[in-house]
Amino acid sequence: MLGLRRAFRGEPLEGLDDADDGAEQVSVRVHPAMIPNSHPLATVGGAFNAVFVRSKAAGELMFYGPGAGGAPTASAVLGDLVTVARHRVSGSLGPGESNYAARPVVPISEAVTRYHVSLDVHDQPGVLAAVAGAFRTAWDHLVVEDRPAAADAIVCFGSRHWRVPERAASLWRDGVAPLIVVTGGPATEGEPPEADRFAAVLRREGVAPDAIVVEREARHTGENVELGLAALDRRAAVGRVALVSWPLAARRCRATIEAARPGVHAACAPALPGPGVRWAPSWRRIRLALGEVDRLGRYAAAGLIAPQVEPAAVTAAAAVLRGAVADASAHHAPSVVVEAAGARREPQ
């Protein structure tokens, strides 16, 4: 338990070490969490720590006591030394690892939990619903998600979204394609190429080194396609590819392939933890989505991507989002907090 506590909407905000035992994996995470005032952990404060356990047989148990300060710390250390001495004198051993120790740890991004979204909007009926609905419309247009199908290669588009190589590795393990091309130069001067960083993640995820094709020069999506597919051509004939990208860029990445390589069939597999997962709206995500909507129109007009038809619903949704962003920036409207129970936390 971390020593973090803050009043927030009448509920305490505690720093939690959280562990869940699944059938095959263990979820272990440390993060601030909002807990009800009625929960036993809500009474923990100051230098005190607590461990709350919920089990099928014993129900709910809490172990509570001081965890900081001179005397409590000295007592704990001395107790450990006495225990070690007793084991040495008696020739016995202390408790070993549990049988959970060998189980894989679930990434925190896979944890299913509650979260809150803070938006500054005018305090008027229907404003929040309109913003959330417009963001969903924009999301569904931008984040193209095709059913995974057999392909010649998986193409990872360079970005700082580290779920991209993780998603590509998952597709490779599922047998979608025998090769993965990672493409992207340094994001900033002095950094290693994004392609090398993605390749390291792929190897960590168990992808065979000879299945990874690395292209280190691309500076933008167009070059990701041009240089990445050129590197891939040197390894295999390419007729079908699975595209893994930052979610909001999925439609643009596919349109770029369609313009540069009309004969290549491209299916989108955006870097999300599961089918149908959507990001919750925040002002940053809304601005990013608006940027992608604008790029689709401008890039298509310039011939950089395949022609695009923007549905009327998307045009209307973008207008709602632009108006909300402008109003919030101009008037510094009050913050409205929305909680979604059981939703999946998804990084940007």
Structure description:
The chain is of the alpha/beta class. The protein folds into three domains: 1-106, no CATH class; 110-141 and 277-340, no CATH class; 144-268, Rossmann fold (3-Layer(aba) Sandwich). It has helices at residues 70-90, 127-142, 163-173, 194-204, 221-233, 250-260, 283-301, 312-331; strands spanning 2-8, 11-21, 26-34, 48-55, 59-66, 115-120, 153-157, 180-183, 212-215, 240-244, 265-268, 335-340. The strands form four sheets. Strands 9-8-7-10-11 form a five-stranded parallel sheet, sandwiched between helices. The radius of gyration is 25 Å and the shape is globular. The two termini are 27 Å apart.
Concise summary:
This protein is an alpha/beta fold and 348 residues long.
Q: Estimate what percentage of residues fall within beta strands.
A: 15-25%
* Backbone structural class: alpha/beta
CATH architecture of the largest domain: 3-Layer(aba) Sandwich
CATH level-4 homologous superfamily of the largest domain:
HUPs
CATH level-3 fold name of the largest domain: Rossmann fold
Number of helices: 8
Give the overall average pLDDT.
81
Key structural traits:
alpha/beta, five-stranded parallel sheet, globular, disordered N terminus, disordered C terminus, Rossmann fold, three-stranded antiparallel sheet, 348 residues, single chain
Give the arrangement of secondary structure elements.
Layout: E1 2-8, E2 11-21, E3 26-34, E4 48-55, E5 59-66, H1 70-90, E6 115-120, H2 127-142, E7 153-157, H3 163-173, E8 180-183, H4 194-204, E9 212-215, H5 221-233, E10 240-244, H6 250-260, E11 265-268, H7 283-301, H8 312-331, E12 335-340
Helix pairs in contact: 2-7, 2-8, 3-4, 5-6, 7-8
